[in-house]
Amino acid sequence: MAGELSPSPMLSDALVILGSAGIVIPVFTRFRITPVIGFILIGILVGPFGLGKLVFEYPWLAHVTISDPDGLEPFAEFGIILLLFTIGLELSFKRLWQMRRLVFGLGALELMLIGTALAVALSMMGQYWTGALALGFALAFSSTAIVLPISGTTSPVGRAALSMLLFEDIMIVPIVFILGAMAPYAQSDGVEGLVDTLWQGGLVVVALLVLGRIALPRLFAQAARTKSPELFLAASMLVVIGASLATAVTGLSPIVGALIAGLLIAETEYHGEVEAIMEPFKGLALGVFLITVGMSIDLTTVWDNLGMISLAVVLVLVFKAAVTGLLLRLMGARRSTAAETGVLMASPSETTLIVLAAASSAMLIQPGTAQFWQIVTAIGLTVTPLLARLGRVLARRVEAAPELPEEDAGEPRTIIVGAGRVGLLIADMLDAHDKPYVALDSDADLIESAKRDGYRATFGDAGRGDALSRLGIETAPAVVLTMDEPVLAQRLVAKLRKSYPDLLIVARARDPEHAAELYRAGASHAVPETLESSLQLSEAVLVDIGVAMGPVIASIHEKRDEFRVKLERDGNLDYRPKLRTSNAEA
């Protein structure tokens, strides 16, 4: 009937996904839990093995469940493509070349050793050798989509994980081809097909590298001149989809093209803008992928085979963690890095599902066997964030951070509250002038990291009186508050001033208004970070565009004096506070 609207299945599924994202991200962020678990749980709930089973009995459930699970697969694949694209944006060809030893050394050893060992173990358990080989290498993969957002790419753990994951992504195509060649009824041209794919794919990669270096700077320059975010987004999508399709046409994985596109854009001056524009799309598409993982978990089957599935999950996780950690130690990694990376990389991967499907279609494994290991893989993906937390705990256990030297314990020293970037920079400056200090923070991870880097730091909550007393606040020459928590800083200043009237208290303020509150609470000095950074930026730009240094410094002092007057007025102070970053102010 004309004018009558009825929601299509695709529109209904889109509403379910967007609604899930609107619930999962804020709720799980509120409790500091990664949304990965939330999206997988949503997939279990709204998938065909969850509420989807009840649609025939309760038709209204069709509006809150996924009606076409297969239709989400392209979007899930696009999420992984965008992830590899953004990884390329964070890298560069120079950095990738520096990582070649890790990628083709550690990455190759990790995949080959784990894959072969698992294949041998499965073969000994009765699996035919071709199927065992397929299962072994399928389970050897680790999840790029989940691991890298957790580990990042710049920390020691992130660099080790990235190198292994990059090699795994490169090896997807050869492994799938080899499985096809091992099929009972495979054609004799399987090896020839692999060779054709490799040389054709190589030509495409070279073409992308050449054309990208020439065309991409011009393309994004034109987009930037229009000052149109829509055109910039369109250009970014054109590049990533075009590069992915180019490698996919030759038989290579589309994620290879996405990675190359990211690397090429990373060499231009527009990589920051591209990364910012693509971030929301990557996050949503990855959410779709995680929902599809949850939809593949049949809780009834899990319950019926709970013992076997649990045993398989535990054995795979423990074995992969042990082998990866041992390889990292043999290659010179610290014990803490090896332990944390090994546990983080222990779970199977989204690529495992691809390899299992290829092995099943090639009749190397039975459908029931494929379904069993698909459930094991889905559960492994679900617990990856928990493995990341376990890895951090284990890292602290196997390589305890050094304790404070005994001679520091009774020595008067400046107490720095907060062991983040600002606190450690202050510690560096105190150390450079041979002034003793100790940093205090209630974040155990920050303290462990600082102590491993050689800083004198200890765990504790500054809001509790015994923590500061234990560090000798009675004899401390100063306390520096660096935390970015305005209310907590204000309360702590007031508490310290009441207990120690003569103590020098220097506090980091978020802005001039917060600085006024800190002065009112009793701070000796409050430094507004927005004010000082703005004044320093002004000084840099004025000098570099030709203004003489003398007038620039005079105008900065004048501006700082204006804020001093404002602080005196807004803070109801009976004195004019000092806003100083040098000895210029009296």
Automatic annotation (TrEMBL):
Residues 411-528 form the RCK N-terminal domain. It is found in: Endomembrane system. GO terms for cellular component: endomembrane system; plasma membrane. Keywords: Antiport, Ion transport, Membrane, Potassium, Potassium transport, Transmembrane, Transmembrane helix, Transport. The chain crosses the membrane at residues 12-29, 36-55, 75-93, 102-122, 128-150, 162-186, 198-219, 231-249, 309-331, 343-365, 371-388. Pfam families: Na_H_Exchanger, TrkA_N. PROSITE patterns: RCK_N (PS51201). The keyword Transmembrane helix applies. InterPro entries: Cation/H_exchanger_TM, Na+/solute_symporter_sf, NAD(P)-bd_dom_sf, RCK_N. The keyword Nucleotide-binding does not apply. Signal peptide: none annotated. It is a multi-pass membrane protein. GO terms for molecular function: antiporter activity. GO terms for biological process: potassium ion transport; proton transmembrane transport. Gene3D superfamilies: 1.20.1530.20, NAD(P)-binding Rossmann-like Domain. This is Putative Glutathione-regulated potassium-efflux system protein KefB. It comes from Altererythrobacter epoxidivorans.
